[in-house]
Amino acid sequence: MAQASAVAQSSYIPDMEVLPPDISPYRKGNTGLDYVTTLDSGRPGPHVMVNALTHGNEICGAHALAFLFENRIGPARGKLTLSFANVEAFSRFDPRRPYESRYVDEDLNRVWSPDVLDGPRQSRELARARALRAVVAEADYLLDLHSMHLPCEPLMLCGTQDKGLALARQLGYPRHLVRDRGHDAGRRMRDYGAFDDPGQPQAALLIECGQHWSAASVTVALQSTLRFLAATGAVPAEALAPHLHAGTAEPVVIEVSGPVTVTSRSFRFVEEYFGLEIIPREGTLIATDGSVEVRTPFDDCVLIMPARTLAPGQTAVRMGRIVSP
Known about the structure:
single chain; CATH 2.40.50.630
């Protein structure tokens, strides 16, 4: 399955402040799956999973997992699974063409629904998702580490269930907490199975740590991971204290009304947006999609993660409102 034709919409050119880490020491693991390791404390407790490289060019999460391995940070109770997901795309990363290794055949973060996983379609990302499926389903808590193509403050995506928001509040970092249902193009890992079931206790978070190759995104990935391990009870906070940065911020909760999904190959934003812009007036024109005008649906509309490249079926931007300071 070839990547969809898309047109770049942003003139922003990032600095390459960090490069991919060497993850080859973690290939063998102990789960029967390459690059997936489960550390078992031998004591009762939750099964906590931290996942990196859902997209092959989003390298901050790989740095965070490498830090855990190198510093021998493991669970004091329960289990901790550390997963490098799309390693085939990651292996193709080229700093001269860094956007081209997001995936090989299709987006690994749009295939996490039973009809796709159990369906006839074939791709390298689907094969990896099918292999990871049992591990993801076993987790009580999941943190999926991502980054963004444009420079923007980090965002914690909590899904639509209250349990996701509650877990994000426990972390206390970052401050922007986004409640959203995901993408029309397909289901995310963080929404898989019990994570999106209000009747089940399992909870998942997806963090967008900042611009893909900024040093700050690596810091955010590590700090959010450490706080996640403490919040879930996998590792005592005092054991993580030497590595934790102090301080929390008052959360800003943003409720997303829905994604704006591209329908034509001539989608254009009216100006360059980087994310978290607040558009004061309802009905403000922000983009055109062929002959269709895309306008803000309410006053003080927050733009969430405007896309760099746009193709039919993909999310161009999400629009939300602040529901708590």
